[in-house]
Amino acid sequence: MARVLYVTLGYTVHDWRFLQALVGYGHALWCLPLSGDAMRPEVPPVPDGVTMLEPVVPQGARCGRWRMLRASSVLRRVIRDTRPDLVHAGPVHLGGFAAALAGHRPMLAMSWGWDVLHEARRCPISAAMTRFALQRADGAVCDCRTVEERLLAVAPGLQGRIARMPWGIDQGQFYPDVARAQAVRRSLGWEEATIFLHTRSLSSFYGAATLIAAARQTARAESKARFLLVGDGPLQARAEAEFVRDGMSDAVRVLGAVAPDQLPDYFRAADVYVSMARIDGTSISLLEAMASGLPVIVSDVPGNREWVTPSINGWLVRPGDSRALAAAFREAMADGAARAAMGRANAQVAAERADWSKNVQQLFTLYDQVLAR
Q: What is the CATH number of domain 3-168+356-372?
């Protein structure tokens, strides 16, 4: 059993799953959130065996790059108090950078996808912080080939010390269920409709404006098209206002954030999953949709191409292209048999490649490897 200090941006359902798995493997854990604002209230309670520490940046204060200098001093103090055998830190340019400054070894840098694919390319300062963290890491964790290639481009010395593991899903939670699907469709009054489901944040990063424009265009032209938007975000109010103004309240439901235990039934009730994220690694919501037996319409970015093959299990659409997205909506509506075949293919892919209980074994192997050094 090792003593592990897990450093993260906040406390999300993804953190909960990592902590739960690591405790189950026998490690003693401390979790240090960098930002109080990034801690999600709907996440399950902290697993037994994990000590949750106070956030470095309290709620209401911005967790920016420069605050990571202060975070490194907090980390040094926490390291003195907890005496970890291993520090596991992300996102790379924030938690990984602070951990590298603190100087504890061994240290694993965990990429969340957006940190190296977007932030490190958008900002020279973030790029330098990313390079500093990766070149001092003893190993790294990522969720797809695209991110792994980026990590190695920055730090070639990490070759052979990266756990590339789709974060995966709970196969016992996301699966097709016809009876429950019909119940949700009845509650919505959409029994005979074709339902398109979006579960990402309604923000520009996730292409919400593209989704809204394509949904409005499709709902005007297709009487049986319905759109279910699950998730909050800065563009939620705009979406609600535009659909109400256009008289589309019957065709579009903007539900906002829902409890995690409600989400599987919305996937079951849908006919097609959609995501227009401008940048993606391996999207958990994409894997949830696939495991639920849905065909998918997603943005044509490298992370999605690792999972989706056009005409086999879904559609790829250029990010930002609302007309192409509307065309994909129409194509999906036109052929129910093709949708069903794609859904079956996705359920098979998810069963083979997206099982969290199997994929997390790669993380355990990397821990053992790094600790043995």
A: 3.40.50.2000
